[in-house]
Amino acid sequence: MTHPPVPELFNGEVIARADIPVMAIATLRQVTIEHAGTGGYLSALFAVPQGDCFRIYAVLSDPDREQIKVLAADVAEAYPALTPDCWAANWFEREIFEQTGLCPQGHSWLKPLRFQPSIRGATAATIGVTDFFSMSGEEVHEVAVGPVHAGVIEPGHFRFQCYGETVHHLEISLGYQHRGVERALIGGPNLRTLHYMQTLAGDSTVGHASAYCLAAEALCDSQISHAAETIRTVAGELERLANHIGDLGAMAGDVGFLPTLNYCGRIRGDVLNLTALLCGNRFGRGLVTPGGVRYGIDDARRERLMQGLEAVEKDLQSAVPLMFDAPSVMARFEGTGILTADLAHRIGLIGPAGRSCGLSYDVRNRFPYSAYRFDTVPVVTYPSGDCFARAYVRWLEIEQSISFIRRQLSATDLEDVKPKPLSAFRPDSLVVTLVEGWRGEICHVAATDSRSRFAFYKVVDPSFHNWFGLALALRGQQISDFPLCNKSFNLSYCGHDL
Predict the structure, then answer these.
(1) Is 381 helix (H, G, I), strand (E, B) or coil?
(2) Can you point out the beta strands (E) in 51-177?
(3) Residue 213 and residue 197: Cα distance in Å, rounded?
(4) Closest listed residue to residue 171, CA positions, set 464, 475, 496
């Protein structure tokens, strides 16, 4: 099938919107399917109003070639669904239908993802947002969990179809507190834009803020200092450290291994305090800003960071191997919630969850940005695809992050980092930025109009790719394994519902 030539972009490279090839939807479908079938990833698929129809954009990332492609097609009513031949498009197409009313014909479960009105008003959904898969038969039963949960947690509903204690299907329903952030970004940037980015997913403040700032700086051809790039990546690795450590402790708690649970809870707090040492906020808010960072690192603070990092590493060496050496823990971790590498790639699993299935995709390595362009972080994988792999990959990534932070803090003067003021954005342009958040690939797609304001802004949090992976990991498992499997993915509710 012939189609217009598709420009190949680097991470953060700006393209004129007029240069994005607009092709027939059948062609876009075929190109996307072929791309996913040859090792590529579908980083984003979304639709925006275009006159009296909608324009569907597909963002295709090719880790092997370190290239990004952006395709477009105009659709008025319905189009042939990609999902039957490209499983990674599943939730993207449900979102498009929910938001626009465009019907992907042939989609097997066309149910809205969230509780929100579409651009056209009420959709013609044949499957309501409160309808669920069902099984029938003797001894078949359903178990419903949520959307209201114990403790401080956002709402999400989990519906298990079980035969006895065995889960045959888990359906996940989110979107009970949809915030409409993407709609609020249109017409920006303004004084609220950076705040929105820092609160897209609170535990990924640095990741999302960095992706936005990379996009903003690209749109006005601005280069930030190497020192500012270094501080951004150090903050990103501290964010990764804190969350990975917290997850290891939480997984230990889910199998009743309290020593590692208690150790990691405290050590995670120590890492958050190191982030607070950078900028005064434990989650990194107020640090990353368009044009650089707001706070530098003087020699005294550098020394305190190094000392704190050394203490964290020493404590982790006591806490984490203790868990992996315990036969009772390994009996619960190993063989639980398995996903194969083939299935993981077909559904578009990313981040530590994908690397735990043997997939080697890491944005820091394949689409390097900021200080990762000058200092490579090795990709850590493990092939078993179970809860043990998801824990072990986190542990190996913790070790790599500590080494990386040490190298960056030792490398250069980090004190003079006054942010550079940005000029106006390029009009009628588009940029895709990819960042490796601690859950995986963060994708931001920013497009400007003729006034150099945001015509649309699309955010894909890694959780959007990975929630269906959790559902598949539960198939054939005991329902009592759900808390452990859920924590081994530890996905974001709010990051999914933008």
Answers:
(1) coil
(2) 53-62, 67-75, 78-80, 103-105, 140-145, 157-163, 166-173
(3) 9
(4) 475
Q: Apex CA 16: angle with CA 13 and CA 17, to 5°?
A: 115
Measured CA angle at 490 (ends 485, 491), to 5 deg? 120
Residue 176 pLDDT grade (very low, low, confident, very high; cuts 50, 70, 90): confident
Decide if 10 contacts 66 (C-beta within 8 A): yes
Q: Choose among 344, 353, 362: nearest CA to 64.
A: 362
DSSP state of 414: B
Phi, psi of 7 (to 5 degrees): -60, 145
The residue type of 217 is E
Distance separating alpha carbons of residues 103 and 92, to the nearest angstrom: 12
Using an 8 Å Cβ cutoff, are 437 and 204 in contact? yes
Name residue 292's beta-bridge partners: 289
Pairing of strands 78-80, 103-105: parallel
DSSP 23-70: --HHHHHHHHHHHHHTT-EEEEEEEEEETTEEEEEEEEEETTTTEEEE
Which pLDDT score, from 0 to 100, does residue 154 have?
83
Residue at 253: amino acid letter: G
Over the stretch 429-474, which tens digit does the pLDDT of each residue have? Answer: 999 999 999 999 999 999 999 999 999 999 999 999 999 999 999 9
Biggest CA–CA distance in the chain, Å, is: 70
**Tokens at residue 287, please?**
């640090």
Give pTM, 2 decimals: 0.96
What b/e readout covers 217-231, taking b as 16+ CB neighbours within 10 angstroms? Answer: bbbbebebbbbbbbb
Pairing state between β 288-289 and 292-293: antiparallel
Record the tokens describing residue 299, joined without a space.
């020699």
Structure tokens at 386: 């179970």
